[in-house]
């Protein structure tokens, strides 16, 4: 009887608590959380470079977009007038932050992201170092940031390549499977000695470098075609005995490897 009476008393107490109006503090806390926090799964946040290849020293432009994946407006809250930012990495080191050195006034506000109406913003980055010299020619990783509170939201990682200032128009080289082919390149550009460096867009062992021949003025690279398909090959001319990131020219070749019957 005692235990049955205790159960009835506890049940009555819980029922009474559930019928009480929420306290102002608790209600305000829930409203604050609903206003400030968002579910990242409700949004698609992306960054897209305007160009995948940019001449080192020139301006690279990116578009950050926020798309609402739900059927209701999503409100993003900000503490200041800054809504977006940009970070750039090279060899796993952050080398640039768009917001560095800038200031924004405190201006708490929110913006609605409606379904079917993405919010976009463009950010530009001049690809130079602190001395205003062109950055080394290489691949750089770029991430966009939406400066929502209490925590920022990140975009995908985009990649761009900084390339030499001079681009020689591309050529198409057609070669049969398991045959060798050669590319002749100068060892002097504008009467200055250069060294060539080879790079590929997804080679996947279709083309292999198997040798080279040199004269005083030229170098001949010998390749072998090992798998059918096509490969984009890029050759970068860089000044001899200087920084490898200071290329002066790029030549591109589309290598088409075909079977014997084609």
From TrEMBL:
Residues 1-27 form the signal peptide. Gene3D superfamilies: Intracellular proteinase inhibitor BsuPI. The keyword Thylakoid does not apply. It comes from the Bacteria. The keyword NAD does not apply. Keywords: Signal. This is Intracellular proteinase inhibitor BsuPI domain-containing protein. It comes from Candidatus Ozemobacter sibiricus. The lineage of its organism: Bacteria, Candidatus Ozemobacteria, Candidatus Ozemobacterales, Candidatus Ozemobacteraceae, Candidatus Ozemobacter.
């Amino acid at each position: 009887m005692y235990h049955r009476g205790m159960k009835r008393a506890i049940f009555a107490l819980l029922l009474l608590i559930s019928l009480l109006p929420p306290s102002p503090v608790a209600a305000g806390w829930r409203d604050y959380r609903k206003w400030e926090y968002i579910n990242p799964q409700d949004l698609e946040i992306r960054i897209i470079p305007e160009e995948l290849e940019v001449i080192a020293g020139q301006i690279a432009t990116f578009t950050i977009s926020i798309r609402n994946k739900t059927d209701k407006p999503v409100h993003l809250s900000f503490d200041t007038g800054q809504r977006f930012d940009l970070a750039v990495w090279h060899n796993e080191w952050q080398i640039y932050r768009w917001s560095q050195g800038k200031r924004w006034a405190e201006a708490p506000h929110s913006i609605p992201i409606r379904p079917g109406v993405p919010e976009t913003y463009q950010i530009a980055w001049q690809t130079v170092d602190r001395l205003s010299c062109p950055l080394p020619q290489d691949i750089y990783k770029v991430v966009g940031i939406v400066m929502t509170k209490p925590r920022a939201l990140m975009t995908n990682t985009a990649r761009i390549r900084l390339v030499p200032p001079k681009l020689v128009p591309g050529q198409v080289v057609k070669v049969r499977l398991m045959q060798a082919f050669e590319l002749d390149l100068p060892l002097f550009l504008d009467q200055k000695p250069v060294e060539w460096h080879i790079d590929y867009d997804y080679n996947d062992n279709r083309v292999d470098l198997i040798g080279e021949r040199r004269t005083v003025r030229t170098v001949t690279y010998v390749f072998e075609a090992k798998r059918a398909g096509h490969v984009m090959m890029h050759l970068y001319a860089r000044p001899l005995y200087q920084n490898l990131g200071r290329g002066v020219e790029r030549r591109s070749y589309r290598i088409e490897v075909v079977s014997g019957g084609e």
